[in-house]
Amino acid sequence: MVSAPTDAIVVDCHWVFTLKYRPDESVDRYKVRLMVKDYTQTYGIDCFETFSSVARMNSIRILFSIVINLSWTLFQLDVKNAFLNGDLQEKVYIEQPPCYVAQRVKVCLKKAIYGLKQSLRVRFEKFSLTISGISFHRYHSDHFVFVRRTKSGVVVLIIYIDDILLTGSDSAGLLETIKYFKRHFVIKDMGHPKYFLKIEVAHQKYSVLLYQ
Questions:
Q1: Which residues have a Cβ under 8 Å from the Cβ of 6 and sit 6 or more positions away?
Q2: Partner of 21 at 20 to 30 A CA spacing, among 32, 62, 102, 201?
Q3: Is 100 exposed, middle or buried (0-12, 13-18, 19+ CB in 10 A)?
Q4: What is the pLDDT of residue 8?
Q5: Of 118, 117, 44, 54, which is closest to residue 87 (Cα–Cα)?
Q6: Burial of 118 (0-12, 13-18, 19+ CB in 10 A)
Q7: Measured distance CA(167)–CA(63) in Å, rounded
Q8: What are the CB-based long-range contacts (under 8 Å, 24+) for 199-204?
Q9: What is the pLDDT of residues 16-53, one digit of tens each?
Q10: What is d(CA 15, CA 100) in angstroms, rounded to the nearest whole number?
Q11: Across-strand partners of 187?
Q12: How far is CA 80 from CA 161, 186, 189, in A?
């Protein structure tokens, strides 16, 4: 912890408590995270680019359709503490959160955290650079759809902030991709998706039913 230079980016933060629910609306777990008050950032002074790393809903629906028609296996992955994977280029300092003031100094951030307007951009840059190491290429019509062609077929993934849908015609390529992710990120393998973006996914023999 250090004192912030007079020309540094300084933002406020607070604790945010959230609930994660199961499809039947019962509480799955409680979560708490340190989050920047993004409304304290001024465009052109504290941030110069906004970014949202979410795939189009049409892309997600098309992916489900392809999975059913081609009988591909579909996996859901969750990147834990996703924003902490992003490396900040700017020097950003935060005021210590209420009720947790160790010293009268500001904290310099090296990694992105929730709420900071730069977080989505630097996190996605890190993710894109990492998966390019196993020959994933961004799809031109949706920049959050990535495709990898292998000798045995194709592997496709869609990213929606910290949630990933992964499928393809190459079973070995899918397992290789999951292992690669686990070497570079803290990944929770959720198996076949059952609940994605508040949509319940019901798998049947020849179809997938989406309930919202």
A1: none
A2: 62
A3: exposed
A4: 63
A5: 118
A6: buried
A7: 8
A8: 200/23, 201/64
A9: 787 877 767 788 878 777 777 766 666 766 666 666 66
A10: 10
A11: 79
A12: 11, 6, 11
Contact (Cβ atoms closer than 8 angstroms) between residue 67 and residue 45:
no
Enter the tokens of residue 134.
């196993």
Length of the chain: 212
User: What is the C-alpha to C-alpha distance for residues 93 and 11, in angstroms, rounded to an integer?
Assistant: 6
Instruction: Return the DSSP state at 85.
Output: G
DSSP 8-class letter at 206:
S
Residue 126: both structure tokens together: 């890190």
Report how far residue 80's alpha carbon sits from residue 68's, in angstroms, rounded to the nearest whole number.
Answer: 28
Strand ranges (DSSP E) for 37-185?
73-79, 87-94, 107-111, 137-139, 142-150, 153-160, 163-168
The amino acid present at 41, given as its one-letter code, is: Q
What distance in Å separates the CA atoms of residue 67 and residue 196, rounded to the nearest whole number? 15
* Residue extents of the structural domains in the chain: 9-211
CA 174 to chain centre: 19
Strands 9-11, 87-94: pairing is: parallel
Residue 58: strand, helix, or coil: helix
Average pLDDT in the 87-102 region?
Answer: 70
Whether the CB-CB separation of 38 and 119 falls below 8 Å is answered with no
pLDDT, tens digit, for every residue of 141-196?
888 899 999 988 999 999 887 788 999 999 999 999 999 988 888 888 888 888 77
